DNA sequence: CCACAGGACGGCT
DNA sequence: AGCCGTCCTGTG
C-alpha cells in the first residue's frame, strides 16, 4: 500500500481486500451512508470522513495525514493481511473455499468500544435499517455537532452524557425496551467500572463475562463487542444466519449456539471471528 | 389484526 | 440447566 497527499485528500494505492459494500453495509458499523457517487460518508472517533474505493485505489476526502495515521489507518485495519487470512481459512477446508469469495473485501473495522457496546445492545431483536435509525437519533440528540464538507454531522455521544439520561429522555430515539440497557451500559462506563484500558488486561473469555454484567448484553452481543470493539478475532458471534449456515455446512444437525461457537473456535482458532464474517456473507446470499 | 425481526431477561420446571 | 413468554417499535 502506497500513501500520498493530493489537495486535501489522502490517496492510497495498491490496496487489496477493500470492498465498501461488504465493509459498511454488513451490520458491523451503523454510521456509514452511501452517497450517489458510490463514496461513503461516516463518523468515527469524533471525525467525519468520506471515502471512495475504485479497484486498488482508495481516496479519503478532506482529511489530513495525521488523522489518517492516528485514526483511519487503524480503524480500517490496514495492518492486517486479509489475503493471508483467506489463504489460511481456505487451507484444507472446502466450505471456506466456497464461502470466502462471497465476503471478498470485507475488513473488520476497529471501532470505539463504547459506541460498539451501545450499538449492539440496540441491535438485539432488530433489523439494520431500524438500528441505524435509532443510532442516528441518539447521535443527533446527544452527540456533538461537527461540520464536514459543508454539512453538519453528529458524533457518537459520550458515556457521561448518556449516563445522565432517564428512560424518558431516551424515549425520543425510539429504542423501545433497550433504553434502560443503554443507560445501564453508560453508567458502567461513566463510573469507570468498565473501560477500554481496563478490559485490555483480560483474556477474551474474562472480558465476555465482564461485558455480560451489562444488562442487555448476552453471548451474541458480547461476542460482537469483542470482535468489532476490541479486535478480538478469537470470538465468534452466532446470529441466526451463522447458526443456520454452520448447522448445514459443518455440524449437519441442530445445535446450540455455544456448541457452534466451540466448534468454530476449535476449527478456526484465534481468527474464527474473521471466518464468521465470510460465513455470514455466504449465508445471506445462499439461504 | 397478527407475526416477527441479525437477543436478553426472568420466572418458571 | 433448559425452556418459553415477554419485552418496544416498525414493517409486512
Strand content: 5-15%
**How are helices and strands ordered from N to C?**
EEHEEEEHHHHHEEHHHHHHHHH
Low-confidence stretches: none
- Principal-axes geometry comes out as globular
**Helix fraction by DSSP (H/I, runs of at least 4):** 40-55%
Q: What order do the strands of the largest sheet run in, or round the barrel if closed? A: 1-2-6-5-4-3
How many helices in DSSP terms?
15
Sheet having the most strands: 6 strands, antiparallel
* Category from helices, strands and their pairing: alpha+beta
Radius of gyration: 19 Å
How many beta-strand segments? Answer: 8
Q: Report the mean per-residue pLDDT as an integer.
A: 97
- Distance between the amino and carboxyl termini: 36 Å
Short description:
This protein is an alpha+beta fold.
Give the topology, please.
Layout: E1 2-6, E2 9-13, H1 20-24, E3 32-34, E4 40-44, E5 47-54, E6 57-61, H2 65-75, H3 82-90, H4 94-99, H5 113-122, H6 128-142, E7 145-148, E8 151-154, H7 159-163, H8 167-170, H9 179-190, H10 196-199, H11 204-211, H12 219-229, H13 240-251, H14 257-268, H15 272-286
Antiparallel strand pairs: 1-2, 2-6, 3-4, 4-5, 5-6, 7-8
Helix pairs in contact: 5-9, 5-12, 11-12, 13-15
This protein binds a DNA duplex (13 and 12 nucleotides) through helix 6, helix 12 and helix 13.
Amino acid at each position: 500500500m502506497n500513501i500520498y497527499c493530493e489537495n486535501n485528500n489522502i490517496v492510497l494505492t495498491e490496496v487489496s481486500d477493500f470492498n465498501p459494500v461488504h465493509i459498511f453495509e454488513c451490520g458491523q458499523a451503523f454510521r456509514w451512508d452511501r452517497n450517489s457517487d458510490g463514496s461513503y460518508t461516516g463518523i468515527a472517533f469524533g471525525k467525519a470522513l468520506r471515502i471512495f474505493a475504485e479497484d486498488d485505489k482508495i481516496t479519503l476526502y478532506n482529511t489530513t495525514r495525521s488523522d489518517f495515521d492516528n485514526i483511519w489507518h487503524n480503524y480500517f485495519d490496514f495492518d492486517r493481511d486479509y489475503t493471508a487470512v483467506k489463504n489460511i481459512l481456505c487451507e484444507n477446508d472446502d466450505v471456506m473455499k466456497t464461502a470466502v469469495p462471497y465476503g471478498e473485501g470485507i475488513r473488520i473495522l476497529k471501532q470505539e468500544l463504547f459506541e460498539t457496546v451501545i450499538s449492539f445492545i440496540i441491535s438485539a431483536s432488530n433489523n439494520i435499517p431500524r438500528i441505524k435509525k435509532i443510532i442516528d437519533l441518539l447521535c443527533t440528540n446527544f452527540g456533538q455537532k461537527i461540520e464536514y464538507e459543508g454539512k453538519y454531522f453528529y458524533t457518537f455521544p459520550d458515556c457521561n452524557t448518556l449516563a445522565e439520561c432517564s428512560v424518558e429522555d431516551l424515549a425520543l430515539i425510539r429504542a423501545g425496551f433497550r433504553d434502560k440497557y443503554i443507560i445501564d451500559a453508560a453508567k458502567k462506563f461513566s463510573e469507570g467500572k468498565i473501560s477500554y484500558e481496563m478490559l485490555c488486561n483480560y483474556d477474551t473469555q474474562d472480558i465476555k463475562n465482564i461485558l455480560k454484567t451489562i444488562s442487555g448484553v448476552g453471548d451474541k452481543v458480547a461476542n460482537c463487542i469483542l470482535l468489532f470493539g476490541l479486535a478480538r478475532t478469537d470470538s465468534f458471534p452466532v446470529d441466526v444466519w451463522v447458526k443456520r449456515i454452520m448447522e448445514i455446512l459443518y455440524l449437519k444437525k441442530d445445535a446450540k449456539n455455544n456448541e457452534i461457537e466451540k466448534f468454530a473456535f476449535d476449527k478456526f482458532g484465534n481468527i474464527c471471528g474473521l471466518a464468521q464474517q465470510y460465513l455470514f456473507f455466504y449465508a445471506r446470499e445462499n439461504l
